[in-house]
Amino acid sequence: MEATSPLQVDRHGAIVTLQFHRPDALNAVDVPMATALRDAARQIAADRSVRAVVLRGAGKAFMAGGDLPTLQADPAQGAADLLGPLNEAITLLSAIDAPVIAQVHGVAAGGGMSLMLAADFILLAEGTRLNLAYINLGTSCDLGASWALPRLVGLRKALEIALLGDTLTADDALRLGLVNRVLPAAELDGAVQQLAERLAAGPTVALGHMRRLMRTSFDRDLPDQLAAEARAFHECALSADLPEGIEAFFAKRKPQFTGR
User: Fold this and answer.
1) pTM of the full structure
2) What are φ and ψ of residue 168, in 5° steps?
3) CA–CA distance, 36 with 4 (Å, rounded to integer)
4) CB of 100 closer than 8 Å to CB of 92
5) Full 3-state SS string of 23-76
6) Nearest of 36, 184, 31 to residue 105 by alpha carbon
7) pLDDT digits (tens, 9 = 90+) for 119-129
């Protein structure tokens, strides 16, 4: 996309990076950015050659949340205009096979923190500040925060984070299990790239089934989850990657997965 776009889309091989690009506003998401993210998610969902997705922010922050001038002009309509495309984007990205990595620095607040929580992996720069923030503006959360947060930290801690609206440090986030790793800012790019390349070289069909099985496991009893696992295993067995993995195991070599 052109340099003035609120969302920069960059592809290297099987890895697609989506960079929020309103640095002067700390990447607060406005309607054009929300629409661009939805459109990018649609393209990714339709392209099975994508095998890893990275979310990141330009400038000093990951994302400072929703664009307040958009909400100030007409809170109800502004929220609807933002949440329609954003919810579609999150739904699409949760359903693809490619794992999603959030590369977070500076600030992730409000919708930015909610969007971060939707990723499968979160790598955080030292010094990053997180705040769910909604309650400080007098509203409830969106973008799946009420779904993701209790699953990650438990109900009691989720209520504390959501209802008090206090700022969390990077160390807090790691201790609570909100993120996977905290790294020096200078090492964040390299660590994310290394993880994305590792995931993109993996058995993408199996990764997709695994991420969806984990996310939906809270909504099923054990017999239903066993049945879902069996269906997913059957689909993996029809892929090219399971035979390759078995052959590589017996040949004592590294498997060459194609993601198909």
Assistant:
1) 0.94
2) -105, 140
3) 12
4) no
5) HHHCCCECHHHHHHHHHHHHHHHCCCCCCEEEEEECCCCCECCECHHHHHHCHH
6) 184
7) 999 999 999 99
